[in-house]
Amino acid sequence: MLNPVQKISKTHSKFKCNECSDEYITNHYDAKKSPVGHLCSKCKSYDGYELNQAFLQKFFLYEPNTGKLITRLPAQNRPKGIIVGSKGSHGYLMTGIQGKNYLIHRLIWLYMTGSLPEQVDHIDHDRLNNKWDNLREVNSIDNVRNTGLSKNSTTKINGVSQRKDGSYRAYIMVNRKQIHLGVFSDLGDAIQARKDADIKYGFHSNHGN
Q: For 170, phi and psi rounded to 5 degrees?
């Protein structure tokens, strides 16, 4: 809601900012059309703010149970109450802040913890699920140890392939090196060998699902 204080001319008026209470002059027709027209230029822009936990908590609201990041204050033509994020070509939600694009799940981690880790992993492999209990801090090695099923898998089991003679070979990739786990006539035995290796080398229980 606009708070006109004084009419300056036919097109311009003085308004009182709803956020900081400072007075500012602007075109009142443009201000009425803008979702952030009731804020002065200082409050409706992210400019001048450092991207940190305090900034995110000032301008956004994060819902841990839904994974949604929502505008707390209107700014940069974003009205209050808008769910932030659009799906990028990589499948993750992204948003623009201060002229740069950021991954939503990394902003959420900064919002909640005050720090940015090397990587943030989606435990269930759903890149759109940004619920707090689905995110975890990892390094590049740990992240590789919780990936989804390979699209090239013929057995639909990560680390198990079927040979031409009908037997099954089990293997695992650790630190970019393939470790042979054995050849088995029974698929179940090959799967068990891979599961045992997952535990031995510290792979996440959700790896390959």
A: -105, 140
- The vertex-207 CA angle with 166 and 160, nearest 5°, equals 10
Q: Which of 149, 151, 111 is nearest to 130 (CA)?
A: 111
> Residue 51, Cβ neighbours under 10 Å: how many?
15
Beta-strand ranges (E) seen in 20-149 are 23-27, 60-63, 68-71, 86-87, 93-97, 100-103, 119-122, 135-138
Q: What burial class does residue 53 get, using C-beta atoms within 10 Å of its C-beta: 0-12 exposed, 13-18 middle, 19+ buried?
A: middle
How far is Cα 149 from Cα 208, in angstroms, rounded to an integer? 4
Q: What is the spatial distance between Cα 159 and Cα 168, in angstroms, rounded to a whole number? A: 10
If you count DSSP H runs as helices and E runs as strands, how many of each does the chain have, helices first?
5, 13
Query: What local confidence, expressed as pLDDT, does residue 147 receive?
Result: 56
Contact assessment for residue 36 and residue 75, using Cβ atoms and an 8 Å cutoff: yes
pTM of the model: 0.56
pLDDT digits (tens, 9 = 90+) for 67-86: 999 998 877 678 889 999 99
- At a CB cut-off of 8 Å and minimum separation 6, what does 62 contact? 56, 68, 69, 70, 108, 111, 112
For 138, left (φ over 0), alpha (ψ -120 to 50), or beta?
beta
Tokens of 65: 């149970």
Q: What span, in angstroms and rounded, lies between the C-alpha atoms of 198 and 192?
A: 10
